[in-house]
Specification:
Elements lengths: L8 E2 L3 E4 L6 H9 L2 H4 L10 H14 L7 E6 L4 E12 L4 E8 L8 H17 L3 E7 L3 H9 L3 E12 L2 E11 L5
Parallel strand pairs: 5-6
Antiparallel strand pairs: 1-2, 2-3, 3-4, 4-5, 6-8, 7-8
């Protein structure tokens, strides 16, 4: 893969961009403080904006590497930060990227995450040269699988007791799309 780092990406409704420490207040207000948003995630709800600010400080530092992909999801019309989407793992041996995402509850069920994920998949295939883009979700969160399916990802199976999130050890549904699937 030819890593590009977290480049700014646009969609009809969104700007996907690097995060800054100045994003802490919106991020905390919109999702890191919400137990319902973090229910199926691997990190705990933030107890205060300082926890969000500290995390953003780490992410900003990580941007120094060209193989880090961590986007803030911003509504183009209002410039409001509503979520994140990122590469949670890279496997250079098979040119594979695994994506993870989360978004504030107020923006669920509007096709926004499908739009963001679709653009990120396009970026990884067309700009980075990935062969495989995958994602997974707790089987108790089928809405996330619907996002993946809408983006052309295929259901590959369930890994029993395959991950740990805020619910403990859970079964995860796995999805992927290959470069050849887009032809």
């Amino acid at each position: 893969m030819q890593h590009k780092g977290t480049a700014t990406l646009d969609t009809p409704r969104l700007v996907l961009r690097r995060l800054t420490v100045a994003d802490a207040e919106q991020m905390y207000a919109h999702w890191t403080s919400d137990d319902e948003v973090t229910h199926f995630l691997t990190w705990e709800t933030h107890g205060n904006v300082e926890a969000t600010r500290a995390l953003l400080g780490e992410w900003v530092e990580d941007y120094k590497s060209d193989d880090v992909y961590q986007w803030g999801i911003v509504l183009a019309q209002t410039n409001e930060l509503i979520g994140t989407i990122s590469a949670v793992s890279l496997d250079e041996a098979v040119d594979a990227v695994e994506i993870g995402y989360c978004m504030g509850r107020a923006w669920w069920r509007q096709g926004i995450m499908t739009e963001a994920l679709g653009r990120v998949i396009e970026f990884f295939f067309d700009e980075v040269g990935a062969n495989r883009v995958s994602a997974k979700h707790d089987v108790a969160n089928p809405a996330s699988g619907a996002v993946m399916t809408k983006c052309g990802m295929r259901f590959e199976g369930v890994r029993r007791s395959g991950a740990r999130n805020n619910q403990g050890v859970v079964d995860v549904a796995c999805y992927a799309i290959l470069a050849e699937d887009r032809a």
